[in-house]
Target: alanine--tRNA ligase
Amino acid sequence: MSSDEIRQKYLDFFKKRKHVEISASPLVIDSDPTTLFTSSGMQQLAPYLKGEAHPDGKRLVDIQPSIRMQDLDEVADNRHFSFFEMLGNWSLGDYFKKEQLSWVWEFFTKELELDPARLHVSVFEGNSEVPKDKESFEIWKSIGLPESHIHFYGTDKNWWSRAGTPEKMPVGEIGGPDSELFFEFEKVAHDPKYGKFCHPNCQCGKFLEIGNSVFMQYQKKEDGNLVELPQRNVDFGGGLERMAAAVAGDPDTFRIDLFFGVIKKIESEVGFGYNSDLDKDKSFRIIADHLRTSVNLLSEGVVAGNKLHGYALRRLIRRAMFHFHLLGSGISGGALAHIAEELRKFYPNVDKNWEFIEENLSAEGTRFELALKRGLARLTSAVGRGEEINGQFAFDLYQTEGFPLELTIEILKQNGILFTPEERNAFEGEFEKHKDLSRSSSSGMFKGGLAEASEITTKLHTTTHLLHAGLRQVLGEHIGQKGSHITSERLRFDFSHPQKLSDDEIKKVEDLINLKIRENLPVSSIEMTLPEAVGVGALHFFAEKYGEKVKVYTIGDPEGIWFSKEVCGGPHVTHTGAIGSVKIIKQEKIGAGVVRIYAALG
Ligand code: SER
Model:
């Protein structure tokens, strides 16, 4: 069964049971400084789980692409990914345990045709605050599961919230006990590589968690206690990739269709097969995983850089390339993009934006390739001269060329030289020292004091709206925002446009914005629903991320002649005159069809 068939079966199954399909949130979250990426389907639904009415009703189904990058080292096993698709169904105060568990069973045994004898479930054993989940235990029994296949665990395994166990939940966070479903792989039941006496939640890989029904019914209060939410919800999430592996009966999730084309291409690139050596398999998996996450991030307009989302992407691309070196074969940026092209057929958004993705992936790959070449030359000539390669040397190589420590260690190993744990400590020490230095220099960004900085960023925020409207007026309505970022010194604005602006166009945009500043137009906001916002001509992005009510900021007269209307959370200046004047300081083409402009207060 292809992963696409599984997606379709899941959506159809729940639609037949009166669920409405909702669209996924984008992967990139740029409105929350604490979270870079969407990591679960629950993120966009939090207000509705707390009791707000969802416009599409009480039964929802969705497919949420998610990114979890906390522990990239886990990716080397056979079932963890930095990007995955979560199939989800939701009851917002509607059905509860009985329907949910019966449907889970029916879907996995009838639709996916998994052998019931190989399925196990887990149930919450209770703690001092929340009782043992006897109800789920009874439901599973009545469905026909033998007691030996129903396992009780505590809050560390059978409790779900975005923060983890109840103790870790911050005030206001919601969560609840859950009931997980596990598939036991017959293929490895007698393989001595896997644990002999393991249980479903053991990490050896013989059992795979393929779905989780969270009974989202508690909220953390200020006094540290949990209280019941006004409604009892169900939040089910199951990883598509793992479901596909269970259906295939193969515990190695990297053999499913979504990965295997890429694995095959890596095989041709390096000249030997997957599953030939344990260490090498890890590199195959890391490359396949990281490339898939990278193209999905690129498809949302992220470009590699040194901060936030861009840095996460850079790390993924560089780790993928580095693992080619571990496999004994360097790779060019272009060849990397050629391998990733395999993913176009699985992800429509990747296909649609392929030109941009290819250009940026291969450009970042080429940058790293050059850095690696320089680093490699320095390292091998130092080794050749018999120089001592210590922690300081390795750090210098990392700092100046971006040459990863693991690669230094590997190359030394190939030359019969051991990089000792003491030298590793010396490297880490330099690393920490440098981090502290850069932290203090970046806090210097706000040297005028935070109050002053926030005044400047507010002005730049309003300027971003002026720039967006100005670009559309001068260049045309095809201009759409691809990203934006503000520091206390400047704003950065990425937008869709085929080429860089001519000097004349830059001047026209700049003059128009400065005219609007001199006109001292009022800036005001009102709340409305998203369709109303669209109706009044407000620009907006990623519609699915907005709540029921959005704020629309108008520059000019909201009921009469206005220059800009945008859906936005603010804050903004009250009159454009406060901005003073604006200068466009730089522009660059950052990818196929995307131009980046930097502007500062004049
Ligand atoms: N919220 C749960 C999870 O992310 C189930 O969807 O695992």
Q: What stands out?
A: The chain has a mean pLDDT of 89. Residues 1-246 form a domain with the BirA Bifunctional Protein; domain 2 fold (CATH 3.30.930.10). The two ends are 60 Å apart (CA to CA).
